[in-house]
Structures are given as structure tokens and as C-alpha cells.
């Protein structure tokens, strides 16, 4: 079992209603998404998170885009357009806004610079090469 602390369970922050992102992921997303390759029936989280970091400069933008996608998956919104042809389009996941936000924040944080081409991962306002 995943420990409560590792799953981001809100023990001490006084916000017991805020769902932990990893917890939401394990319950609603992990049937299709593995965290690291190899994929299950969808692209794994880490490479997807890397793509979000390449496309969006800030966590706010990345999370907002991801929440919008989760509410209404759309090939034209996808950061990875090939994925829908390879795996099929993702179904919309009926979760509350809080849960979608929590899971998207967790997802964004799975970024692994070793697998991407990022550097200077201090967060905040770093410049990404857009192309
Ligand atoms: C029934 C299987 C399934 C479930 C459950 C599922 N996904 Fe997906 N997901 C997919 C597939 C297939 C794709 C790739 C095709 C696409 O982009 O639609 C995808 C793509 C994505 C993407 C990339 C979107 C983009 O911009 O390219 C994100 C982010 C994502 N999923 C997050 C989640 C999260 C978070 C959950 C849980 C709340 C979840 N998925 C649950 C199948 C699933």
C-alpha cells in the first residue's frame, strides 16, 4: 500500500476536504496511465508531464490546460497529438474541480528532467524554448 504521507494525504494543513493528487490519480487514472514507461493503455505520466513543461511556462497555465483537457478531452487540445491515434482519445473523467486540480498539480510535478530536455528546474519563471 502507498503510505499516506507519500500520497499527499492532507494530514496537517487543515484542509481535510482537499483531495490528495496522487490519491486521485491512483483511484481514477492509474488503470490506464502508468507513471513511468512502459505504458498501460495510455501514455505514461512522466513523459506527458515533460511535454506539459515544454509547452507551458508556469504551473498555473499547465494545470489549467490539463484540467480543461480532463473535463473535455479533445485531440486538438492535446499536448501529444499522436497519442490519441495510438491509444484512442481519453474519456472525460467525472471528478470535482478540486479533484481535477489536485490531480493535475500532482501530474505536473511528476516532471522528470532526466527524461526530458529541461534544465534549471527551479520552478517559477524559467524560460522554456518554444518552437
Ligand atoms: C480509460 C483510460 C484512461 C483513464 C481512466 C485516464 N486516462 Fe488520461 N489518457 C488516456 C489516453 C488513451 C490518453 C492519450 C490520448 C489522448 O490524449 O486523449 C490520455 C491522455 C492524458 C493526458 C494527456 C493530454 C494531452 O494534453 O495530451 C493527460 C494529462 C491525462 N491523460 C491525464 C489523466 C488523468 C489525470 C486521469 C485521471 C483523472 C486520466 N488521465 C485517466 C486514457 C485514460
Structure write-up:
The chain is mainly alpha-helical. It has a single domain (17-111), classed as Orthogonal Bundle (Cytochrome Bc1 Complex, Chain D, domain 2). The chain is 40% helix and 0% strand. The chain contains 5 helices and no strands. The protein has helices spanning 21-28, 45-55, 59-71, 81-87, 97-109. Helix 3 (59-71) crosses helix 5. It starts with 20 loop residues before the first helix and ends in a 22-residue tail after the last helix. Residues 116-131 have low confidence and may be disordered. Bound molecules: heme C. Heme C binds at residues 28-29, 31-33, 41-43, 48, 66, 69-70, 73, 78-80, 83-84, 87-91, 93, 95, 103, 107.
Helices, by number, come to 5
The SS-based structural class is mainly alpha
User: What hetero molecules are in the model?
Assistant: heme C
Percentage beta strand: under 5%
- State mean pLDDT (0 to 100 scale): 82
The CATH superfamily turns out to be: Cytochrome c-like domain
CA radius of gyration is: 15 Å
Span from first to last CA?
A: 42 Å
Report the strand count: 0
**CATH third-tier fold name:** Cytochrome Bc1 Complex, Chain D, domain 2
Low-confidence stretches: 116-131
The ordered string of helix (H) and strand (E) elements is HHHHH
CATH class: Mainly Alpha
Helix proportion range: 25-40%
Count of spatially separate domains: 1
Shape: globular
CATH architectural group: Orthogonal Bundle
Q: What characterizes the major β-sheet? A: none
Amino acid at each position: 500500500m502507498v503510505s499516506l504521507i507519500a500520497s499527499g494525504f492532507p494530514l496537517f494543513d487543515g484542509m481535510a476536504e482537499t483531495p490528495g493528487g496522487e490519491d486521485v490519480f491512483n483511484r481514477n487514472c492509474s488503470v490506464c496511465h502508468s507513471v513511468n514507461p512502459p505504458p498501460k493503455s495510455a501514455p505514461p505520466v512522466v513523459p506527458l508531464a515533460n511535454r506539459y513543461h515544454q509547452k507551458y511556462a508556469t504551473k498555473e497555465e499547465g494545470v489549467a490546460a490539463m484540467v480543461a483537457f480532463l473535463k473535455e478531452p479533445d485531440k486538438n487540445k492535446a499536448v501529444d497529438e499522436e497519442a490519441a491515434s495510438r491509444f484512442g482519445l481519453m474519456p472525460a473523467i467525472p471528478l470535482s474541480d478540486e479533484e481535477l486540480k489536485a490531480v493535475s498539480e500532482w501530474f505536473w510535478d511528476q516532471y522528470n528532467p532526466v527524461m526530458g530536455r529541461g534544465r534549471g528546474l527551479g520552478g517559477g519563471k524559467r524560460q522554456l524554448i518554444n518552437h
